[in-house]
Amino acid sequence: MKLLLFFFGLSISEGRVFPPSFKFCAATAAYQIEGAAREEGRSPSIWDVFSHIPGKTDGGQNGDNAVDHYHLFKDDIDLMKQLNFDVFRFSLSPSRILPTPDYKVNEEGIFHYRRVLEYLKFQGIKPLVTLFHWDLPQYMDELYGGLLNATALKEFFSKYAEAAFDGLGDLVDSWSTFNEPYTSCMQGYQYGSMAPGRNIHPESEPYDCIHAVLVSHGAVAKIFKEKFPKGTSNKTISIAVNCDWQEPYTDSEEDKNASIRGLDYYLHVFMDPIYFGKYPDGMVERSQGHLKPLTPEEVELINGSVDVFALNSYTSNYVYNDPNLTLGESYDNDGLLGKTFTSINGTSIGNVTEPSWLYNVPWGIGKLIRHINQRYNPGEILVTENGLCVTGEPNWVGDEVLKDQGRIDFYKGYLNAILDAVEEGVPVSTFCAWSMFDNYEWARGYTQRFGITYVNYTTQERFFKDSALWFGRLINRTEGV
Ligand SMILES: *[C@@H]1O[C@H](CO)[C@@H](O)[C@H](O)[C@H]1NC(C)=O
Ligand SMILES: *[C@@H]1O[C@H](CO)[C@@H](O)[C@H](O)[C@H]1NC(C)=O
Ligand SMILES: *[C@@H]1O[C@H](CO)[C@@H](O)[C@H](O)[C@H]1NC(C)=O
Ligand SMILES: *[C@@H]1O[C@H](CO)[C@@H](O)[C@H](O)[C@H]1NC(C)=O
Ligand SMILES: *[C@@H]1O[C@H](CO)[C@@H](O)[C@H](O)[C@H]1NC(C)=O
Ligand SMILES: *[C@@H]1O[C@H](CO)[C@@H](O)[C@H](O)[C@H]1NC(C)=O
Ligand SMILES: *[C@@H]1O[C@H](CO)[C@@H](O)[C@H](O)[C@H]1NC(C)=O
Ligand SMILES: *[C@@H]1O[C@H](CO)[C@@H](O)[C@H](O)[C@H]1NC(C)=O
Ligand SMILES: *[C@@H]1O[C@H](CO)[C@@H](O)[C@H](O)[C@H]1NC(C)=O
Hints:
Oligomer: single chain
Number of helices: 16
Protein name: Beta-glucosidase
Structural class: alpha/beta
Shape: globular
GO molecular function, one term: beta-glucosidase activity
Number of domains: 1
Pfam families: Glyco_hydro_1
Keywords: Signal
Signal peptide: 1-15
Strand content: 15-25%
Number of strands: 17
Helix content: 25-40%
CATH topology: TIM Barrel
Bound molecules: 2-acetamido-2-deoxy-beta-D-glucopyranose
């Protein structure tokens, strides 16, 4: 369908244009892009240690150098500016800011991020700053049991957030505490496939991690509200949770209930405490004592602790009731859920992309944001991550590496689904593409490229893929979706 629209005097050759107030954002995370692992006082994080253990990551690859953004940040911000991005989402490395167990602030770390923020300001790009994107200082793991120890984690995050808010708060309006705590807790403590790589107590540690994260998030939000009271500033705080839409396998009541439980174990377990002051119904009971109800003091800290809803979402799956699982064996089993990407009719939920978990299901994100709006009425939703590595992309050579029409098609699908919801009144304000650059994809190392910008990892040269130029026009409102 070809439409000819006029918008601020520019002609739109195709598709639907986003409202002028809608913001586009380029997303990244410290360990995946910075490199400079041993510079300016930074101490090791759990990811430095995990990625150096043989066999834990593809090809034994690590983030020691990543894409050297620590040194190239000005050039990188210039690239975002060329594409007209409104917002740069990035995370601070906690072990640059509090590198030692005495929690003494490393001024070099603060100074580095001030330079990044000053340069963003100069280029007119708003920062969206994540405090924690999985790279916990190693000393926290060794001394206190890392993300499992609510007492120690809360103390650490309070000191860390204070240092960040005091040192950088004047330059940042939008903050997130944790990125994808579901992933940290499940991959880190149930499956052991990501740092710190534990699968020793999958029946209890994922619950301990969720609890410690919630308490720490609440403590940070309290400090935030004290430092930046409403009315004197418009600064916002959020927690960037992730969720795959959970589509009922059949339209039986059993599977519809399973779909709700799927969302309970993924998303509601974090957001119900934050919006309703309690865990989802049934979770405490099914955990066989591993999940304790929140205490009144914890509810006080956690309930009402976000200003906006930040969501990472990439894919969807079918979910059905599985009564045969045994309660008390693992977090996953306690949901009594079966999951599949194949419908009851034998068809795939969508086309799979390069990562085996990432099916292209644009309608899933539409259902998910409507569900979030209905359940929590959050006022504002930020899609803080979405994207893919295109099927076959790791093997492309020569000029092929920039010709990522599959990525444009994927984003068109998801952004159309989001725009449909926006037009219905679902308050999505912002969309972040994951990622601005090809980068260190955690346990997959450098084997999966999620960037809209190609990086030659030998020379650290950057080249816009076709999708980056497409985003430039989309944000320009010279192209629609
Ligand atoms: C949790 O951290 C506290 C310090 O905040 C420490 O006293 C305690 O021993 C730690 N617990 C475990 C199980 O490591
Ligand atoms: C907050 O935003 C509102 C609405 O945009 C504006 O009227 C107000 O002046 C802002 N307050 C501060 C302290 O920036
Ligand atoms: C579905 O959930 C509702 C509400 O919890 C419950 O009343 C109903 O019995 C459940 N149905 C089935 C088939 O499990
Ligand atoms: C949580 O906060 C909401 C909104 O302020 C309130 O309605 C609810 O009662 C609180 N929940 C608890 C358990 O305190
Ligand atoms: C549960 O076990 C029963 C009996 O073996 C079997 O018929 C049923 O298909 C199983 N359900 C699922 C979801 O696997
Ligand atoms: C399966 O096929 C039936 C009949 O064509 C259709 O109504 C239903 O939507 C399909 N379900 C899925 C999950 O594709
Ligand atoms: C899946 O891929 C096929 C082949 O490239 C394409 O024809 C089809 O439209 C795709 N389906 C979806 C839902 O994207
Ligand atoms: C990366 O740069 C090196 C040095 O210029 C070059 O030899 C190599 O072919 C480049 N890699 C790709 C994939 O372009
Ligand atoms: C933005 O729009 C202008 C005017 O059409 C165009 O010249 C420019 O190349 C566009 N920028 C990008 C990044 O697409």
